[in-house]
Specification:
The chain is elongated and about 70 Å long. With 105 residues, the chain is mainly α. The relative contact order is 0.08. α3 runs antiparallel to α4 and α4 packs antiparallel against α5.
Length: 105
């Protein structure tokens, strides 16, 4: 096979993949759409890892049960699952301690 024919084809296919335009963002919707549209892209595994990190970062910033549950629902077997569960548990304990009501405990 002629290498001079293969290189332009590979470069053309790479140019069609918009991963470079989203990789520095923290836009969950953009990553979700990218993975939907380009699930077979060589960049898809990296995009999945980045998306999982963004979900966890959002949960850590919001410090809410809902945010941690969004992460855990989207990534039930995620690589940061144990960390998210621990942070969720600590966040709930701190909340219950702050409220100090029968309902919170």
């Amino acid at each position: 096979m002629n290498l001079r024919l293969i290189v332009p084809i590979v470069l053309t296919l790479a140019a069609c993949d918009p991963y470079a335009s989203i990789q520095q963002t923290e836009d969950i919707d953009a990553f979700e759409q990218y993975l939907k549209d380009y699930s077979t892209s060589p960049n898809a595994p990296t995009a999945k890892i980045r998306l999982e990190e963004i979900y966890l970062k959002k949960a850590q910033e919001e410090k809410s049960l809902e945010a941690y549950d969004r992460y855990l629902n989207r990534w039930p077997e995620g690589i940061h699952r144990a960390k998210a569960m621990g942070e969720r548990r600590n966040m709930l304990f701190d909340w219950a301690e702050e409220k100090n009501t029968v309902e919170s405990w």
